[in-house]
From TrEMBL:
The lineage of its organism: Eukaryota, Metazoa, Chordata, Craniata, Vertebrata. The gene is SULT1C2. It comes from Sarcophilus harrisii (Tasmanian devil). Belongs to the sulfotransferase 1 family. Its EC number is 2.8.2.-. It is found in: Cytoplasm. This is Sulfotransferase.
Length: 306
């Protein structure tokens, strides 16, 4: 761990009110203060060669790809996929919120092969990640829809500070002043990493447009071979409508003290293009200019609508 991360990292930076969690900072990237306070344990986490790591920037289809992966792993057995809530099936390695066990503790207690989850950018991963040959599935979502979804999530999630007004949040997201830092740095970092690692890089918009095609990509990447009947089941069970009603995926079992879904549902719309209901003309123009500047020099492209 770098020297600058020890003392600097452990001071809370953004907070709103007593009930809401604050953000701290690691290497100039905002993270929940509970994660920052548990940073030593996270950095010592040992990845294994047969792990499968699901990674996304927050609100980019994380739960969706988790359920797809689990359905493939369980060969379309719906009952097996309901053995426990999704956040217990795939430990979230940077999760640290007492009195629950940390994500690292959950992962360490899990038999191999493990399916794990993270929102960390590449530069903050535990060193053991780079020593392992584990596979990674990364899902990226266009930044406009990602911003809108994150804003509504932050309104109801008690594990993050209040997002403030939409106007304030718009600026904070563009400037990376949200948990997990800059969307731009996150997606570009993982896009670059795919040249060195076994990474299946997927796009939210592609899964929405043609779920079966993307499910087949995941299946092949995982080394599985499932027949068309099972693929039918997986496609059906991982639809937004099904998952929104499924207590194993919709976070309805999570206490209100962590997620207050009376403010905004965890699974809200699951569509492409909802940003049009939030961005003003001026905001859209400002965002487009900023996007063009920050995405210059990368072959990574996104569709803002389908």
């Amino acid at each position: 761990m770098k020297e600058s991360m020890t003392q600097e990292a452990k001071r809370p930076l953004l907070s709103e009110g007593k009930k809401r969690a604050s953000l701290g900072e690691v290497e100039r990237i905002f993270l929940p203060s509970t994660t920052v306070n548990n940073w030593d344990q996270i950095q010592k986490f040992r990845f294994k060669d047969d792990d499968l790591l699901i990674c996304t920037y927050p609100k980019s289809g994380t739960t969706w790809i988790q359920e797809i992966v689990d359905m493939i792993e369980q060969k379309g057995d719906v009952e097996k996929c309901r053995r426990s809530v999704i956040h217990h099936r795939h430990p979230f390695i940077e999760w640290a919120r007492s009195p629950q066990p940390t994500g690292v503790d959950q992962a360490n207690a899990m038999p191999s092969p493990r399916i794990l989850k993270t929102h960390l950018p590449t530069q903050l991963l535990p060193p053991s990640f780079w020593e392992s040959t584990c596979k990674i599935i990364y899902v990226a979502r266009n930044p406009k829809d990602c911003m809108v979804s994150y804003y509504h999530f932050q309104r109801m999630s008690q594990t993050l500070p209040e997002p403030g007004t939409w106007e304030d949040y718009f600026e904070n997201f563009m400037n990376g002043k949200v948990s997990c830092g800059s969307w731009y740095d996150h997606v570009k970092g993982w896009w670059k990493a795919k040249d060195k690692r076994q990474i299946l890089f997927l796009f939210y918009e592609d899964i929405k447009e043609n779920p079966r095609r993307e499910i087949q990509k995941v299946m092949k990447f995982m080394g599985k071979n499932l027949d068309e009947t099972i693929l039918d089941i997986i496609e059906q069970e991982t639809s937004f409508e099904k998952m929104k009603e499924n207590p194993m995926t919709n976070r309805s079992t999570v206490p209100k003290t962590i997620m207050d879904q009376s403010i905004s549902p965890f699974m809200r719309k699951g569509i492409v293009g909802d940003w049009k209901n939030h961005f003003t003309v001026a905001q859209n123009e400002k965002f487009n200019n900023d996007y063009k500047k920050k995405m210059e020099g990368t072959s990574l492209t996104f569709r803002m609508e389908i």
